[in-house]
Amino acid sequence: MKRVLGLILGMILIIGNIAACSPEKETEPTVQKSKEPVIRDTNTNRENEREKERQNEDDIPTLTLVQKDFVPSNPNDMAYIEKINTALLENGIKAKLELVELPRGGYSEKLNLMLQGGNVPDMIWFRDGMDEHYMEEGLLVDLTEYINDSDVFNQSMEPYHKARIASYPYLLNIRYNTPKIALVRQDWLDALGLKPPETVDDYYGVLKAFANSDFDDNGEKDTYGITATGGTERLDAIFNGAFGMPTTWIQGDDGQYIYHKVSQNEKEKLAFYRRLREEKILDPAYITTKWDTMEEKLYTGKVGMVVGSAGKVVDIYSSKLQHAGADTMLIPLNPPKGHGGQGFAPVDVTKEQKGFAISTVSEHQALAFQVLEFMASDEGQYLDRLGFEGRDYEKDGHGIITRTEKGQEWYARFFDVPSWQSPVPLITDVAQASLDITARYYIEDKNFDIPSEHSAKWETMNNLYKEYAYKIIMGDYTMDKFDEFVNRWYEAGGNEITALANKILLK
């Protein structure tokens, strides 16, 4: 019996050893057995993951972007680019934006030097008409097919955007229509017991009352009703319509187009400006006044009315006015009604004056457009319009968003899609009212791009106008000199360009 038990125990030990050495089936690991292999496998896995991440990063194309006031030397701009890049990947767009630095100075000048030097980014922000030269050189992608195939852009573009793209399909810029609008100090109106003006005569009365006041309390006759910046363009934006010049080219009784600045309507308007200057209602220093000086005159009580862009600019002006110590707000006004009509400056639909272009030398043109498309989408607008959570806005446990004081300074780097529904108001009711007013008087311009072969003549003709207009307003020239200006304008190339205008506009 003992011998049998011994044999059985021996067989159990042999089977146990064979099972322990068998590679086909692993027994439950003990702590001692699993320690080293687990550590080695984890390190290997981490290295593999890192290598995959490096490979994935290498697979993501980099798109270079040059844009005014959006530079890699600014930490806030770089933080925003990182946020955009993360959002692109989360939305299935394998692209990485990289900002291009430009030397300080005039943006267009520095951009031109960079492009002429052969450094051409994938995406380029153009302004000041500099894009036209590079379009003629074949450097800019025609965006027509991309936009036609894009549901996002077809939904986000307003009629004026679509008209501009149809005319010039190289620049993309989705923004509100923000024409210039008259803005008046509420406290000055209240102090004088005046209502917001509605007609040209009303405007004259309000501005004259301002000029005869002394709201800066210095006892001197140095207060004016209104000022401008380097010319009459701001004044023209609100008064042209009242004097029968709703568009750049206006039709006479014979059906032919003439340039509005050589019309008798223009002569009548200049006579009105001359009266404002003679009666010390118009700031005589308007010709040398810059935009920042204009603002300073508003904030320090030197003028009671300015002309600025509708929308967010209204909030900026009002905020600065209050920071200057004025417990008041600016009121946006309807354009003055005159015997010639009523309206703001017409909307130019010949082309975008500034915007994004995609270069033809880019190896990722379709991807570049996809990035722009994303920034115009609801997801992109959420990023571009709200900024950073925790800094520019707060979100409570119920998802309610509140903008912070810092968030009031945030602005979209890409697009302001007018139809996008923000979860929180982005401008004040007053600023929104300015947009509503300008929308009521929306009119598309009758205009065309002056061909490059006529650009030198056109510049000469415009300078001729500025000279005569200023001297007539200031009293250096009599009103009769306007007729002399008209003759010289036609002799300088006006006959040729007027013929071209009728050929194009009467099609």
Structure description:
The protein is of the alpha/beta class and 507 residues long. Among the domains are: 59-176 and 351-418, D-Maltodextrin-Binding Protein, domain 2 (3-Layer(aba) Sandwich); 180-346, Periplasmic binding protein-like II (D-Maltodextrin-Binding Protein, domain 2), CATH 3.40.190. The chain is 48% helix and 9% strand. The protein contains 19 helices and twelve strands. It has helices at 2-21, 31-59, 75-90, 107-116, 131-136, 144-148, 151-156, 159-167, 186-192, 200-211, 233-239, 264-278, 291-299, 312-323, 365-376, 378-386, 429-440, 455-474, 481-505, and strands at residues 62-66, 96-99, 123-126, 180-185, 224-226, 249-251, 257-259, 303-309, 330-332, 355-358, 393-395, 401-403. The protein has a four-stranded mixed sheet. The chain has a four-stranded mixed sheet with strand order 5-8-4-9. A two-stranded antiparallel ribbon has the order 6-7. Mean pLDDT is 90; it is low at 1-43. Residues 24-60 are annotated as: Disordered. Keywords: Cell membrane, Lipoprotein, Membrane, Palmitate, Signal.
